[in-house]
Amino acid sequence: MGLFTELRDSISRAVDRMFSDAEPKRIGIYGPPNAGKTTLANRIARDWTGDAVGPESHIPHETRRARRKENVEIERNGKSVSIDIVDTPGVTTKVDYKEFLEHDMEKDDAVRRSREATEGVAEAMHWLREDVDGVIYVLDSTEDPFTQVNTMLIGIIESQDLPVLIFANKTDLDDSNVKRIANAFPQHETVPLSALEGNNMDEVYEKIAEYFG
Amino acid sequence: MLSGCPNCGGNKFQFRPSSATESAETTSNPAGNSGESSQSGPTPEQKENVAGGTEAHVEDRTRDSSTDRTATDQDDSNSERPRLSPSSKKWPGQEEPTSRPEPPEPSTSPGSSESTSEPRTDADPTQDDAVEIDTDRQSLGDDSTEDTAQASARSDVVSPDELAAASRTTAGDDESVGTDESRPDQPARPSDSDGKVIEPSSDERPDLDELRAELNQQFESIRIVAPGEYELNLMELYDRTEYIISLQEDGRYVIEVPDTWDTTPGGPEDS
């Protein structure tokens, strides 16, 4: 049954790509918690639609439900690209409410947030399986990219043959190390940026138009 | 000429131009006719012959005792001579039993029915040539060595010892028999290179598969370690068709069954 499901998915995906001109592609923004996914989604949405996608926070797992911003028109080099942005919860293999207690949160709230964050990871993985045409993988360039989650997610994305761009975020911070990310995933294009400061967004949009247009 | 191997279930054929066989005969004849080799041959054949082998052996022995093979060959038609003589000279011991039994019979017992059987012998000798090739390999090891050489040996099944032995025997065969015999041995040689090529490819992608297997064995999609503490199996979450909507305090979680995915997106079910 799994084989049949994969076959069905691959066929539906291929059909979707055949009619890519008619429908905007769904681009999932994936990455570990606190990488700046929602900040990037808000930056893109604000630049091209004027609206935000969701609240940003320093506390991990602020985004616990996938949020979609539809029909984001990006114009680059005289070419217009229409995409749906899906901001997904941060993906991790372990969620612990005690992590949230450090952010002055009550235990009950921390436990609930932990549960919701876990549900969010499940939802993110479900989106990746069912309903994404391309992936923007956001990494905190101040953190070590060699993690189990990153390796696994990139592997899944590659197995799906989805177009993927790796964004090395937070280049405005002193500890940023873009080269480390580029070396970790040499098979993919790595684009440095600061979604918070809006640095290097021109290249970001060029790459989005190139990869997902 | 295209001939079949009687001991191979009719699955193996070998093309042998008559000119090549003749040349091989002429070259092999001087050194080939030795009573010693003919005597040593029958024993391996006895092992090889599956059905009716004993009868053939008995006949062979009678022929051997008759000594003059050339005389019997002369009795046969010219077309038969080259085939019969090469087989007898090249593989006196091994193949004579199967191929020669029939030709000598006509000579010893002049019956019309036996003379009709001679045409079979024409085909048989050529078959014997194919048999000789097989027996070469079989003499190296088991009866199944040929199958492994073509199929399994390509993936490192063949041991170095077997290859060394094969190279020795094939070298000897080439000297005595000729180029035709060396060809069938060639398939076993590329198997070495094939095995070497396979090894590096297996080292390429251990990461994701191993990771996946390890995680799938550890726990299922979501494990509740304690209230507010969760461990997630990303691969399992990715692979499962159900959509986990929400977790319950007691550890149960609400899922959406795939069948209801398209029709009722808001209709979760308790599991």
Classify the oligomer.
heterodimer
Low-confidence stretches of chain B: 23-142, 172-202, 260-271
Strand order of the largest sheet of chain A: 2-3-1-5-6-7
What proportion strand of chain B? 5-15%
The biggest chain-chain interface is: A-B, 32 and 23 residues
Whole-number tally of structural domains of chain B? 2
Counting structural domains of chain A, the number is 1
Mean pLDDT of chain B: 52
The counted number of beta strands of chain A is 7
CATH topology label of chain A: Rossmann fold
Q: For the record, what is the CATH homologous superfamily label of chain A? A: P-loop containing nucleotide triphosphate hydrolases
Can you characterise this structure?
The complex is a heterodimer of chains A (213) and B (271). Chain A is α/β, with parallel strands linked by helices and 213 residues long. Chain A has one domain: 3-Layer(aba) Sandwich (Rossmann fold). Chain A is 41% helix and 21% strand. Chain A has helices at residues 2-18, 37-48, 98-101, 107-130, 148-159, 178-184, 201-212, and strands at 25-30, 67-76, 79-87, 94-96, 134-140, 164-169, 190-192. In chain A, helix 5 links the parallel strand 5 (134-140) and strand 6 (164-169). The mean pLDDT of chain A is 90. By secondary structure, chain B is mainly α. Chain B has a three-stranded antiparallel sheet, with no helix packed on it. In chain B, strands 1-2 form a two-stranded antiparallel sheet. Chain B has helices at 18-32, 35-40, 42-48, 53-66, 69-75, 80-90, 96-99, 104-108, 112-140, 145-150, 160-176, 179-185, 190-202, 206-218, 234-239; strands at 2-4, 13-15, 222-226, 229-232, 243-247, 253-256, 269-270. Helices cover 59% and strands 10% of the residues of chain B. In chain B, helix 3 (42-48) packs antiparallel against helix 4 and helix 5 (69-75) packs antiparallel against helix 6. Classes of the chains: A alpha/beta (213), B mainly alpha (271). The interface between A and B is medium-sized, with 32 and 23 residues.
